[in-house]
Amino acid sequence: xxxxxxxxxxxQNLDQWAAGNHLIQxxxxxxxxxxYQAVERGVSSxxxxxxxxxxxxxxxxxxxxxxxxxxxDITADRLLSVDAAILRQCGxxxxxxxxxxxxxxxxxxxxxxxxxxxxxxxxxxxxxSVHGIGRWTAExxxxxxxxxxxxxxxxxxxIRIATGYLYQLSHRPDMKETRGLGDIFRPYxxxxxxxxxxxxxxxNFC
Length: 206
Fold this sequence. Notes:
This protein starts with 6 loop residues before the first helix and ends with a helix. Helix 3 crosses helix 9 (135-144), helix 8 (120-128) crosses helix 9 (135-144) and helix 10 (157-166) packs across helix 12 (189-202). It is built from twelve helices and no strands. The protein has helices at residues 7-18, 22-31, 43-52, 57-71, 76-81, 84-89, 94-108, 120-128, 135-144, 157-166, 175-181, 189-202. It is elongated.
């Protein structure tokens, strides 16, 4: 059976890495282990990530709550049937409304979010075929909805900043450099991503 992300293997791998890296050890001592909170697979979870694109967490949470209050459970059928004006009243931009509508359309016409390809790159490519879904959204979905162990969101700002700190760099690594720096953590890069996000949220980086 293929292994998935869980709190046990997060702790196990971080403990192993901390034994050879004092900054990881220090981070665990200061802030503890990241808490992995998985979400259910499906349209609702992917729609939630789309809503949160390029928005502060509190703003995205507010829009999502308005959306749920307005249309109820977030399903493909409901997203297709709801009027765009109602979605705008929830705070969604025209572009995000188009993204959600495209996701819903693809879901009812063949995109099965419960049977994504086993290969991580293939799964990312399939998700990115939905209008408005970029690599960041696809990778977040694979970590939190699919519990995949080896996803590395190198384009994420928080990951880049925290990676620079982890490697004690004098500059902020770009996406390409960050991707290379993450190779050492294969095949458990999702665990390191969770740790770095945890560090980014709790530590004031310069």
